[in-house]
Design brief:
The protein has a single domain, classed as Vaccinia Virus protein VP39 (Rossmann fold). Helix content is about 35%, strand content about 25%. Helix 3 links the parallel strand 1 and strand 2. Strands 3-2-1-4-5-7-6 form a seven-stranded mixed sheet, sandwiched between helices. By secondary structure, the protein is of the alpha/beta class. Helix 2 runs parallel beside helix 3 and helix 6 crosses helix 11. It contains eleven helices and seven strands. The chain is globular and about 50 Å long. Bound molecules: S-adenosylmethionine (SAM). S-adenosylmethionine binds next to helix 2, helix 3 and strand 2.
Amino acid sequence: MPQWDADLYLQFASERTQPVFDLLNRIHLRQPRRIADLGCGPGNSTEALRRHWPESSVVGVDLSAEMIRKARQDYPAGTWMIGDATTWRADPPVDLVFSNAMLQWVPHHAAVCRHLLDQITPEGVLAVQVPAHYDSVLHREIIELSRDPAWDARMHQARRALTNESPGFYYDLLAPLAKRVDLWETTYYHVLPGPEGVVRWFRATGLRPFLDALDSDQERSRFEASLLKRYSTSYPRRPSGSILFPFRRLFFVAYR
Ligand SMILES: C[S@@+](CC[C@H](N)C(=O)[O-])C[C@H]1O[C@@H](n2cnc3c(N)ncnc32)[C@H](O)[C@@H]1O
């Protein structure tokens, strides 16, 4: 579990929140009474839920005290809890468990998804988005760089920090437990000022476990500089001067 920096995370708030809206717009629930946003981070996804269903009671739950501090500061009217989504219990059950960009940080997705389904009402919904970019140039370069003898011995944990499963895995898991399961993937093309923007983006999320494994800021800068060198030609500058950073995400919505 990485150290979270809410301000760094929010540098790309609009790009990071777009999948929240895309997931929200595919949930067919007229008026959920109670909603839980698990892995709510700095409250951006929870606020989108509150605006979408202003009559509902919405709680944001996150394991990181820093993220909950930021959520409380930015959205004082919200309801916030520090908690672990994998053991969190809804009492009473909620109509919607929503989770945007959290599940990849926990292992054992079969057990966790069953646990989350147990927290919803008989007509309730589980709606999840997870990154699905593990075959991307960037991810491959991070893994290869981490295997460099200069870093390898300290990177075993970091390489295991993120869990990813296929659409088929989630379908096979959820289909026997749900009336209906919708799954889809979207590739977002983020417009960034240059290849350094990709490191800035990732520094707050997927790169975190690798950077946390290093001892000093100097080492972290060296790791980032080597990474930048490895991937920078993979994102050619467009005539506008910007680069396009593709990022694939997997969504699923299960109706009990
Ligand atoms: C990438 S942020 C997502 C924030 C927000 N949901 C959004 O849509 O932008 C992932 C969040 O998941 C939280 N997280 C990771 N593991 C968790 C767990 N087991 N239980 C609750 N939150 C967790 C992290 O603390 C972090 O705030």
